[in-house]
Amino acid sequence: MKSYSSILFLAFLSLFFSPLSFAATSHSTPDLTQSGVGYLALFIFAIAYCLVMGEEVLKLRKSKPVLLAAGLIWILIGFTFLRLGEIDIAKSALDHNLLEYSELLLFLLVAMTYISAMEERRLFDSLQSWMVSKGFNLRSLFWLTGILSFFISPIADNLTTALLMCAVVMKVGGTNYKFINIACVNIVIAANAGGAFSPFGDITTLMVWQAGHVNFEQFLTLFVPSVVNYIIPAVIMSLFVPTTQPDTVHEHVELKRGARRIVCLFILTIATAVAFHGLFHFPPVIGMMMGLAYLQFFGFFLRKTLPSSLAKKRALAEARHDEAALQRLGSVVPFDVFRRVSHAEWDTLLFFYGVVMCVGGLSLLGYLGLVSEIMYTQWDPIWANVMVGVLSAIVDNIPVMFAILTMQPELSMGNWLLVTLTAGVGGSLLSIGSAAGVALMGAAHGKYTFFGHLKWMPVIALGYAASIVTHLWINGHLF
User: Fold this and answer.
1) In a 3-state reduction of DSSP, which class is residue 31?
2) What does the alpha-carbon distance between residue 220 and residue 208 come to, in Å, rounded to a whole number?
3) Which of 33, 131, 317, 394 keeps 20 to 30 A from 453, CA to CA?
């Protein structure tokens, strides 16, 4: 026998899933934008995203609320479409969204595994040590960390790059919180701008590339607008950075065996992914997974040759009477690919799943079609894409870009490049607008803050506007 609470729950659901609560068009996907179930799904997503935006304050990982929201939204869809006798439509949409996610998941997992392998082989520690040891003054370090962020992020993604450069700034800044804050703002702008002209620089650019709207080489047309986006605010902010010398202690970092070869394998992996996509029109993830095999075989080689390598190094250290080298040999561990896989940013990957499923659910309910009709039919597409960048500063650019790709608006190549640019660099307007900004607020807690970033928003907005004008000017023939 059903309990009284169960009967009440079913009665509540019936209010939302009643056939009278929405209109359905025959032989097409039902329009649920003005139904109780549609409003409830929107409410669930809004609550989840408020929790995501409050991640820094609540100390609640951003993946948790969107995973729960995704499940609840698809429960609502399941009940509704089952009652309508259209469950096959819902199942087809679910399969499509899962396929979209699985391709991106595997692609990002391989990229993150390579980055983790480089980190474990101390490649980034070596780069950090080099910068600290060169005796640069604060303004020079401001420019150096920014420029390196701009050129590393197209390969290593903006989040990893920002965290690496933040570690340098924290080390040389010490108690100079003013320098740390302005340098972190500079890093966020540079990392986001650098990631905008490469499919590997940000998840949003990867999504556009995998969707086939922009070819690999066409991203390079965004290089000059990306430079403009970074240079203008950087020049203005640099005037407020002193030329004093920081107090730093040099630390010698020795690369672990195979570090440089892993970099070469990563470049080969990128080339393989591009070749699969360019030559055969296969999803780039096929090439990335093949690249994971490169790393696995190299890991096998490192493990098998470890004893002989250690013996040679030990003999050399003993011949030189180098006690420090002998001590370092004792800490050498075999390379394990699967341990590197476990170190991937799983919170980001699961957050991405929740976003894909939530946005996919809202699309099935008809909301994205409604938004697409307003933005890309009633508005000029250029202004719509400019607003996408502003929206990316408030809401994470991943759901914004996925929503646009799900809408599938009819855009010229110039406009696809424009929305790629604005979604990538628009997140720099606020510290919460990009993964790089959110990560640095955690890494430099109390030193790089939301309001510390906010006071530089006018000059960042100047760079944002200038990059759009630059794109419209030099790539006008693509519109």
Assistant:
1) strand
2) 14
3) 131
Which residues does residue 23 pair with via DSSP β-bridges, in sequence order?
31
The residues pairing with 449 across neighbouring beta strands, listed in sequence order, are none
Q: Is residue 32 part of a domain?
A: no
Domain span holding position 334 = 103-185+248-342
- Given a contact cutoff of 8 angstroms between Cβ atoms, the answer to whether 149 and 162 are in contact is yes
Pick from 188, 232, 174, 219: which is nearest to 420 by CA? 219
Alpha carbon separation from 335 to 90, 121, 256, 317, 341 (Å, rounded): 44, 9, 10, 22, 12
In this structure, what token pair is assigned to residue 208? 């556009």
Roughly how many angstroms between the first and final C-alpha of the chain, as a whole number? 65
Which ranges in 305-375 belong to alpha helices (H)? 306-320, 323-329, 337-342, 346-365, 367-373
pLDDT of residue 228: 96
* Cα gap 306→397, rounded to integer Å: 44
- 186 contacts 237 by C-beta, under 8 angstroms: yes
Is 335 contained in some domain? yes
> Distance between CA atoms of 245 and 404, rounded to whole angstroms?
47
| CA-CA-CA-CA dihedral for 203, 207, 208, 209, to nearest 10 | 100
Structure tokens at 389: 């960048």
Rounded-to-integer distance, Cα 431 and Cα 453, Å: 6
Predicted model pTM: 0.74
**How many domains, the chain?**
1
Identify whether 173 is part of a domain.
yes
In a domain, 296, yes or no: yes
> What is the rounded distance in angstroms from the CA atom of residue 158 to the CA atom of residue 149?
8
